Amino acid sequence: MNLDKELQKYEIEFKKGFSKPLILFTLAEKPDYPFQISKTVREMTKDKISIVGSNIYPILTNMEKSGIIQGIKEEESRKRVYSLTDDGKEFLTSLQQTMKEFVDIIQEMIDTQ
Amino acid sequence: MGKNSMINQIDLYINEVSQCLPYSKEMKQDALDELRIDVQSAMNESEGEAPSAVFGSPRDVALNISQGNDWHHERARWTTRFFAWIIDFIAELIVVIAFLSVGLLVLIFTIIPWNDLMTEFTNWESGIVDFSLQGILLLVYISILTILTVIIFVGYNVVLEYYYGATIGKKLFHLAVVDQTGIRITWKQAIIRNFSKVLIIEEFLPVDVILGMILERFDPEKTKSQRGLDILAETIVVKV
User: Which of these, A50, A100, A108, B189, could form a disulfide with B233 (CB 3.0-4.6 Å)?
Assistant: First the structure.
């Protein structure tokens, strides 16, 4: 069995769940346009998580539909800038809480192994 | 890379993405504007690679754009599709009749000496069919005309649907043929969904429609207004 390949698969799988929360973290810091959001996520995670090219579009539009973010087109730069809505800020607080509880448990499990 | 050539490259790329989305300009403008800014930013940070290497293939990008938008949410109704088909059928007939008239004129005036041929055919009293060169030529010519007629009927649909997402009739009724994911169909899909039009005057089409209507009963949500071959090709006809 190729362990490296297997490890990669596991990594991809557990990383997947983080891209949405990370987008929200980014937007909590600063409203931005899609390319810049992807870039910030990549930089924040030291290249560990990168959302390639147009893959961020469906994520953003789904978040917009559920009302946690909103995209507003800036007249001057013609950029569509996304920011957290009030609902989104509230949502993010609960999400952070849930994530923290989860990550703490995992952390404990990894430490005791 | 020069700045101008990069802008040209981006224009071409956006255009390719746009062609994968057979919707009106107004519908897709915002999404394409957004894409342009992102591609420009991505290109500025890349080292002279092509946009599709930096940002993904136009089809993938179109798919991502389509996934977020519900442009393709409203299926065309059977009645609308029927009216669109009538217009297409008339258009096809006009092309075929024009084509056959030319074919016939060519036959009369150039290829085969008509008088000789008539004698060939009236010479049948002997009971021996004489396959003269002219007779064979005539048969070959008629076969070619027939094949070309079929190609016009099927090709009209396949080519227009592939390149423009709609035939003339569909365009008039603001319909488009798209993949189930909402993007432009491939050659393969265009050919599969039009296969019931292969016989000269589309005799299989009613069967295909009735099959679709029956299958619709089982899963009205998913297979609404899809012909049998639409289901097979994973294509839908939507209002745009």
Answer: B189
Indicate the SS3 state at residue A10. helix
ipTM passes above 0.85:
no
The CATH code of the domain that includes A39 is 1.10.10.10
Mutation site, B38, B40, B43, B59, interface A, largest A CB count within 10 A: B38
Beta strands in B23-172 (DSSP E): none
Considering CB atoms only, which of B38, B60, B64 is closest to A35?
B38
Mean pLDDT of chain B: 86
Rounded (5°) CA angle B137-B96-B19: 120
- State the residue range of the domain holding A48: 3-112
Is residue B70 within 8 A of residue B64, CB to CB? The reply is no
Poorest-pLDDT segment among A32-41, B118-127, B145-154, B163-172: B118-127
pLDDT value at B120 more than 70: no
B30 and A53 within 8 Å at the Cβ level: the answer is no
* Domain chopping of chain B, boundaries: 3-68, 78-239
